[in-house]
Amino acid sequence: MIFTGLFTSLQFTLSTGNQPWLEERLIIDGNNYIGGMNSIIAGNDFLHLENTRQSPGYQMYLALLHMIVRDQNIIFKVVKMIAWVVTVLSSGLIFYLGERYFGRYVGAVAAMLFSFSYKYHAYINLLQYEVLAGFLFLVYVYLQLALISCQKTRLRSMLLVATGTVATVICFIHFRFLYVIPFGLLYLYISGRRYPYDRQRPFRHMLSALFLFILPFLLLFVTWSVYQSSVHHEVVVGQDGLVSLFNEYNSIHSVGWAYPPPEKIEGPLGVAFIVSYPGKFLWLIKERFLYLWDLKKDIWYVGHPLIGYLDKRFNKEVFALPFYLVCFIAFFIGMLQKAAADVKRGYIEVTSCFYFTLLPALIIPLFVFSSSRYLVPVVPLIILFQAYVIRYLTFGAPER
Fold this sequence. Notes:
Elements: H1 2-15, H2 30-43, H3 56-69, H4 75-101, H5 106-115, H6 118-124, H7 130-149, H8 153-173, H9 180-194, H10 202-232, H11 242-248, H12 271-276, H13 278-292, H14 320-345, H15 348-363, H16 379-395
Helix pairs in contact: 1-4, 1-5, 2-3, 4-5, 4-7, 4-16, 5-16, 7-8, 7-15, 8-10, 9-10, 9-15, 14-15, 14-16
């Protein structure tokens, strides 16, 4: 079943050829990425980006691929094929993490659900960073959990640097993922206290682990941000526009969705708006929650996640709202069940790893703007908890 789903997505990808997106409304930030890619290639310079507001990391990734391929007629086909390969690798990591940390059959169920996800298949064929980010989050979780059982000094040091490097690349993809650094440090502290690598000198090795983790971030991301701030004469934290976006989407005319932006931007903005209109702000959080989980449709809605390939004459949307509601409830119950099971068995570091990686990604969009697009990078992790519930309902509580 897993291979059938992945093969279906491959056929879909091949059928779209060199098109960078499926339809005009799903261009999203595609034109900005193409412009950034072309500016890097024209200047042969990865530092002076034409646009630092839309994912500098993804722009650099596209430019690097273009420099390797050197053919405008196939570049987008190559990008999409790599996205498909990344999806295949993601399904393998989902299977491993599910079987290793959730219980027997959970990985298989999760990988099967993931392989048939029409939403993920659609994003493979859009010029967007979400599929790449989803894979990086899985690698990040895999490396963090691998640190628990690693007892070799050199290998542990390499794992710490690798984990920090993956976290740094995730931060380059979008500034809303910056939370992986403080939460990554917190996870290392918690796991280090429970499983000290050196019981004779635990404090020294704790500091060493935290330093090795954050070193790539300091060398790459912080240096990049300082340089970009000096070039643009404003504070740039990976990307510019963080404060302006928060203010723009927290005003009296805000509606909750990510696009199109509010028609008018006036009155108190940002924090001043939240203080002045707490009721309106709470309403915005509710609306953003609904858009995030596809309980309300925005302009970037791509269709039913599991039956999107069915004939267009079939009214798939009749099943959409109940399906998304069940998906959210299954995820919520799965989070609670997994946490309770891990606390009971003493595996709190597993729960904290998944919670620290997943929950901020679901909460942060509620304070700025939201779309189910922002759910895509963590869909692989969400599916693991949904599969956990399916496994529980089918065979009872899984054993690890």
